[in-house]
Amino acid sequence: MTPKSGIADWIKRALKDEPPRSKSLIVTIFGDSIVPQASGIWLSELIELLKPFSVNERLVRTSAFRLAEEGWLESQREGRRSRYSLTPSGKQRVEHAYHRIYDPPPQHWKGMWTIVILSKTGNQIANRAELRRELEWEGFGILAPGIAVHPCADPATLNEVLERLHLTGSVMVLQARDLDTVPSLSASALGAECWNLGELASLYKRFLTRFRTALPLLGQGADSQTSFIVQTLLIHSFRRVVLHDPRLPAALLPEAWPGHVAYDLCREIYLRTFEQANHYLAENLDGGSGGPLAPTKEFYNRLGGLAQ
What we know:
This protein is 52% helix and 12% strand. The chain is α+β, with helices and mostly antiparallel strands.
């Protein structure tokens, strides 16, 4: 079996076993391929990019329309053609996800916690439940009713969440560390109490099982389209896991944490695909003119650094 036929068979199995949802797949393609290198994409180009994933034209049109309704995408018409790009709020969502997907897992920790506390009157806040959802999405653990904690919270992101929910004057945000002179619950025990690390570990192991078999098949036989497909499936699957990961420092995680192995595997596969995948994009964007893409600096900084 040649490398090319081997990876082609792997792609067929992957699409059959876990067919990606079209809306989510479009978000993956925008976040991984379009936003870092181009201002937008023609609908006809998006249709062509999704064909290898068994997503037909009607479904692409419907999905793009729904993403526009949900505030992810906006379109501009030129004659009969439509060009899609991310809305400002869509860009903000992608930027929030960017570092969680592409940055290395945090290792070192100074022992400082960020704590968000709702006062007793906070129980009357109409969007209290929405605040909890947003904090959990940003990786916070719920320590007790009205108290959320995180060891590596990003202050700018937290401030943006509170401003968006109009809660900047309704919660207390503190930073605290353990008292060395008082025996207390260990950080690792608190991590297990606040976050479902067992379920997350299972998701990472499933990712590893799936993509470890692709790695040895990615040789010189993988053409540009194949590289684009594998890279997109890779980030699509990794994104679905890592966006549920609170990104805890090593001190709060069990030994042999599979998330670190999954990141290394994702990086290794990405390094083998991104150049050919970019060739495929250059050939298929802007009407197939093959014009050069304009990757941002952040594009080359992802996953610990890509060779320019």
